[in-house]
TrEMBL record:
Gene3D superfamilies reported for this sequence: Glycoside hydrolase, family 3, N-terminal domain
PANTHER family: BETA-HEXOSAMINIDASE-RELATED (PTHR30480), GLYCOSIDE HYDROLASE FAMILY 3 DOMAIN PROTEIN (PTHR30480:SF16)
Keyword annotations from UniProtKB, A to Z: Glycosidase, Hydrolase, Signal
Positions with biased composition (Pro residues): 42-54
Compositionally biased region (Low complexity): 21-41
Family, per entry: Belongs to the glycosyl hydrolase 3 family.
Protein name stated in the entry: Beta-N-acetylhexosaminidase
Signal found in the keyword field: yes
Example of a GO biological process term: carbohydrate metabolic process
Source organism (scientific name): Jiangella alba
């Protein structure tokens, strides 16, 4: 049924575009010269609403977007396809106004507090002027190690927590809650969920940002998350196609090379993205990864063949976003202008974070003038972005009161995922006071607070040691707790070993209750851990 809906939506889109994939709206009622007119059926007394497109916006929103873009000069269309980063707390209102930027992304140095973010996003929207649709305000807010906005907004643990819990209903609730908080601060696009399949300790980039090493677990978790984000009204961007969890290098630092065959990629890395497309994903981010089996020598984000796989084989017709173009995988080999033009020509719709925004903008305009970048390709890219922002504006009204209101849900997420790899599955795991060591100072403070609330006393001289692990070294103690990746647990000789996948207040609350025996540990290892005594309870 879902495939039928996708095909129907694709047919509607093609009809609205005059049978071509150029984003221009045609008149489906027109007949070719010499074709006899046909008698129209009697109209229904009750008007019907066209079904939504398979990737988010309605047909009406897409048509309105195409009309808006058709009236833009090339210079504004070129601005529309750029989402820029900026430095400091003051948003680049002049750049948004002058170049007609499609949007900006908030990074860590752009965030001071939820209140400051709300003020900044209001200024950004004001700088957008009377364009008739919102400016994209994007952010990486995955939970865990990748979250730009911290407390007093709700902190959620790493995405792997949901892979450990295998609870798709909870995944949907968490995504909706996170989306509601972000929209309450004026954010319109979130670069999440992470649809990568991690392949273990040799994955240096993704780790707990992935739900699991099992493609089906990742697929089901991503589908649930997309439903939650859609309910909140935020635009979600699944990432990083064709899959960043199975390459042994970090694209922030170099160009990773994917050596797996296309059949291997289809059986592993593509599975969550195919599920995302089937669920109506609005946007997908393409990584800077060279895929030898598809197009050797080019990053995926610049590759017509890799983006062609996403479009043609996976059937995705929504917004394609590049990964950040100031990453070394792009910036070390291509100038900002060349990378922007190549990515658009390859089929991307949004150029994210070019190292030099003005150079990227100028290069796009010049490429259209020279014919290097077809004008209808630029218009198509701009139309998709505008359509999604029209769709976002039609969603639930943002509620600033939602910010920071989901601490209990964050705790429930961690409690569902906490995994006992060694030790008893019932009753207290410690006897008497404990001494907490390791981790960061903030981790130990949060553990002490959570332990006190759970009735578990802490004492610097206690004989029972709880060691918090933030890295890859196994560590020793009576209890060893992995706060991020669980792989180090396999090499530890501790009698009790726990995978927590987070260091939020809710995660430490769940940990303290499991140690005290007042709450069960329900998680199952979402990745293989060599040397682990058990997969969970």
């Amino acid at each position: 049924m879902r495939r039928l809906l996708l095909l129907l939506a694709g047919a509607l889109l093609l009809a609205s575009c005059g049978g071509s994939d150029d984003g221009a709206v045609g008149d489906s009622s027109a007949t070719e010269p010499g074709t006899p007119a046909t008698t129209s059926p009697t109209p229904s007394p009750t008007p019907t609403t066209p079904p939504p497109l398979a990737w988010g916006p309605t047909q009406d929103e897409f048509d309105r977007a195409a009309a808006l873009v058709a009236n833009m000069p090339v210079e504004r269309q070129a601005g529309q396809v750029i989402v820029a980063r900026y430095s400091g707390l003051e948003p680049p209102v002049g750049q948004i106004e002058q170049l007609g930027l499609g949007g900006v992304i908030l990074m860590g140095d752009n965030v001071e507090s939820p209140e400051q973010v709300e003020r900044a996003t209001a200024e950004i929207q004001q700088a957008g002027g009377d364009r008739g649709y919102p400016v994209i305000v994007g952010i990486d807010q995955e939970g865990g190690t990748v979250a730009r906005i911290k407390a007093p907004a709700t902190e959620f643990p790493a995405y792997m927590t949901l892979g450990a819990s295998r609870d798709t209903e909870l995944a949907a609730q968490v995504a909706q809650a996170s989306g509601e908080e972000l929209r309450g601060m004026g954010v319109t696009m979130v670069f999440a969920p992470d649809a990568d399949v991690t392949t273990g300790p040799d994955d240096p980039t993704i780790g707990t940002r992935s739900a699991s090493s099992d493609p089906q677990v990742v697929a089901e978790t991503v589908q649930a998350s997309l439903g939650g984000y859609a309910a909140s009204g935020i635009v979600a961007v699944s990432k990083h196609f064709p899959g960043h969890g199975s390459v042994p290098a970090d694209s922030h630092e170099e160009l990773p090379v994917q050596t797996a065959s296309l059949d291997e990629l289809r059986a592993r890395d593509f599975v969550p993205f195919q599920a995302a497309v089937a669920s109506g994903a609005e946007a997908i981010m393409v990584a800077h990864i060279e895929v030898e089996a598809v197009e050797s020598g080019l990053p995926s984000s610049l590759s017509p063949k890799v983006i062609g796989l996403l479009r043609d084989e996976l059937g995705f017709d929504g917004l394609v976003v590049t990964d950040a173009q100031d990453m070394a995988a792009i910036s070390d080999g291509y100038g900002s202008g060349a990378a922007a033009v190549m990515s658009l020509a390859a089929g991307a719709d949004v150029v994210l974070m070019p190292a030099d925004v003005e150079s990227a903008h100028t290069a796009i305009v010049d490429a259209v003038a020279s014919g290097e970048l077809p004008a209808d390709r630029l218009a198509q890219a701009a139309t998709r972005g505008v359509a999604l922002m029209l769709h976002e504006a039609a969603g639930p009204a943002p509620d600033p009161a939602a910010v920071g209101s989901h601490e209990e849900l964050s705790y429930q997420e961690s409690l569902g995922g906490v995994t006992v790899v060694a030790g008893a599955c019932e009753g207290p795991l410690v006897d008497g006071p404990v001494r907490v060591v390791g981790g960061e100072a903030a981790d130990r403070v949060r553990f002490d607070e959570a332990a006190a609330a759970a009735g578990l006393s802490t004492d610097a001289n206690a004989p029972t040691t709880v060691r918090l692990l933030g890295g890859t070294e196994p560590g020793s103690g009576d209890v060893v707790v992995a706060l991020d990746r669980p792989y180090a647990l396999g090499g530890s000789d501790a009698p009790v070993k726990i995978a927590l996948y987070g260091r939020t207040p809710g995660a430490f609350r769940a940990l303290a209750e499991v140690l005290a025996g007042t709450s069960p540990a329900r998680g199952t290892l979402p990745v293989p851990v060599s040397g682990a005594e058990q997969q969970g309870c």
